[in-house]
Every structure is written in structure tokens, then in C-alpha cells.
Design goal:
By secondary structure, this protein is mainly alpha-helical. The chain has a single domain (5-116), classed as Rossmann fold, CATH 3.40.50.970. It is 36% helix and 7% strand. Strands 1-3-2 form a three-stranded mixed sheet, with no helix packed on it. It is globular and about 35 Å long. The two termini are 25 Å apart.
Length: 126
């Protein structure tokens, strides 16, 4: 059971964590990525490689003003986990209302804008 990840509703919550909690959060994020992506085939090595980077970027920048470009849509899953999509993360790469679309080309949100560059065959709200 994750202790910290369920409490993260947005990047502002990261600033409330100390270094030890941030390390635990990153481990919980990796555990969740492995759990969900083992159920649905997807590229997840690139996601595992950017967990700490994603957390550091969200601690350093304000994405309501700043922009981020991931070099592949597959690297955006850690971003989804810490921007309020943890509770629905097990719907990733599924169809239906409320499902999180996997690979994205461009996505807009109320507070944050994330851009994932991918093969362009799938697009949706990240």
C-alpha cells in the first residue's frame, strides 16, 4: 500500500515533503508504474528512468506558467501520477469514460500543460 502517492493531488503537494519522503514517493511511483504496466503491455523503461527527473522538474518549475516537452509520450506517466491521476492510473491505456489515455501528442489541463511527443497515432487528454 502506498503511503505518500495517494496524498499527492498536484505538484504543490510535493513542496510539503522532506527529502526522505520524496525518495519514498519516487519508489512508490516506480512501484505503481511496474504494477499497472505489467497488466497492460506498454513501454515503461523510459517512465522508470524519469521518475526523479519529473519530481525535480515539478519542484523547480511552475507548469501553470512554464512548459515541459517530453521526448516521448511514454515518459509522461510519472507526470500523470503526481498531477491528480493516481486514483485512475489503473485505467491507463484503456477505453471508456474517465480512462487515462496512454500516449499523447499534446494535452491541455486546467492548471498544467504537458506535451508528449509520440508517434501521433493516439492523442488525448493527459
Amino acid at each position: 500500500m502506498h503511503r505518500i502517492l495517494p496524498k499527492i493531488e498536484g505538484p504543490e503537494d510535493l513542496k510539503l515533503l522532506d527529502n526522505q519522503e520524496l525518495e519514498l514517493l519516487c519508489q512508490e511511483m516506480r512501484d505503481e508504474l511496474v504494477r499497472v504496466l505489467s497488466l497492460r503491455p506498454a513501454h515503461f523503461a523510459s517512465n522508470l528512468g524519469v521518475v526523479e527527473l519529473c519530481v525535480a522538474l515539478h519542484l523547480s518549475y511552475d507548469f501553470s506558467k512554464d512548459r515541459i516537452i517530453w521526448d516521448t509520450g511514454h515518459q509522461i506517466y510519472p507526470h500523470k501520477l503526481i498531477t491528480g491521476r493516481y486514483r485512475n492510473f489503473d485505467t491507463i491505456r484503456t477505453k471508456g469514460e474517465g480512462a487515462i489515455v496512454g500516449a499523447v501528442v499534446l494535452c491541455y489541463e486546467d492548471r498544467l500543460v504537458g506535451v508528449g511527443i509520440c508517434d501521433g497515432q493516439r492523442a488525448g487528454k493527459c
